[in-house]
Design a protein that fits this description.
single chain; Lipocalin
Length: 347
């Protein structure tokens, strides 16, 4: 089994279906727990000898965390260096919030290795420990990450992967120490730089290139359950590469609705993965395929409400136009949303 490449922090173009369905909600007080990560940190990391790393490895990481999207999400970036091999750098982006529906913390890691996928976690107020696990661990393994807040300046962490038979595949430990405010600039500069990927980029990533840039968009909602009389509006979006070109990162703005979104290619699943985070605290996840004949991405929302099927397409027209169509129906065939979007590249 090939080990995941892991670092040690919290493990248009496109608009998702719920853009015009966002309702004002009360922000859960549990999000305040994530505020303990705010600021800058360095970590001394030891990957103990185990099946996936038989000799063991030491790392040093640099982190910066802030709240975004009206305080709904913790945005945490990381740059990780292998000790003695400064050219081997892994970059990560982690986005975390609290989901009141499941009463758990919910996060997404995005790494320059291409790894992504949701994690969930719980807070132990007695030990002041956040315990998280990936929703999609490697086959026949269990994984757990703990981060204990010893005080406002220090966090002790541990990450393990255990085989079904009980054998330890990975055992990583670290100590995170808080740094002054001026450390943020250097961390951001390292993280923003698009370097040489530590693994070859999938050929499918090139299909996302047309989305790079700044866009103006027109939205036309046909009459539906969400928009009984229909509506029109305008917005703007951007797209750029992050994490050494492994993911496309975008921002969207339509009226008071704002979001960020990421698209990458999941090689094991042989599919594109698209995740969007909104300033209403929502997370939309879709999987998609590229259709060369129509020059379109075809998406299906995977975390939709029960009884609703939502699909969307993004067709690339020339160099400067993207046409999108989002259609949602329930089990009776009733149309809950019928949205067309025309995005034009800014000159």
């Amino acid at each position: 089994m090939k080990p995941p490449i892991v670092t040690i922090t919290l493990c248009g173009v496109l608009l998702s279906a719920s853009v015009f369905a966002q309702e004002a909600t009360t922000k859960p007080k549990e999000i305040d727990i994530l505020g303990q990560y705010l600021g800058n940190w360095t970590s001394e990391v030891t990957n103990k000898p185990a099946v996936w790393d038989q000799k063991g490895t030491k790392y040093k990481t640099f982190n910066h965390a802030e709240m975004i999207l009206d305080g709904w999400f913790l945005h945490h970036i990381e740059v990780s260096h292998i000790a003695g091999e400064p050219d081997k750098v892994t970059k990560s982006l982690f986005l975390w919030t609290f989901d009141p529906n499941t009463n758990k913390y919910l996060g997404w890691p995005f790494q320059s290795t291409g790894i992504t996928g949701p994690s969930t976690g719980e807070w132990n107020p007695i030990t002041k420990t956040l315990v998280t696990s990936p929703v999609e661990p490697p086959l026949n393994t269990t994984s757990k990450m703990t981060e204990q807040f010893l005080d406002a300046q220090t966090i002790k962490g541990n990450l393990t992967y255990i085989e079904g038979g009980g054998k330890t595949l990975m055992d990583m430990v670290w100590t995170r120490n808080r740094q002054p405010e001026d450390a943020a600039k250097a961390t951001r500069e390292q993280w923003d730089k698009i370097g040489t990927p530590i693994q070859p980029l999938p050929a499918e990533i090139k299909k996302l290139e047309p989305f790079i840039g700044e866009w103006d968009s027109e939205f036309i909602n046909s009459p539906s359950v969400q928009s009984p009389k229909g509506s029109t509006s305008t917005g703007k979006m951007t797209g750029k590469w992050i994490l050494d070109g492994r993911f496309l990162f975008g921002t969207s703005e339509v009226g008071t609705h704002r979001s960020i979104w990421l698209i990458g290619y999941d090689t094991p699943k042989a599919a594109y993965r698209y995740v969007r985070f909104t300033n209403a605290g929502l997370i939309d996840e879709s999987v998609g395929q590229w259709n060369e004949e129509t020059r379109s991405f075809i998406w299906k929302v995977v975390n939709e409400r029960p009884g609703i099927t939502r699909t969307s397409t993004n067709q690339i027209i020339g160099q400067d136009t993207v046409l999108a169509h989002i259609l949602a129906k329930d089990n009776t065939g009733k149309v809950h949303q019928d949205l067309k979007i025309k995005s034009t590249r800014r000159k």
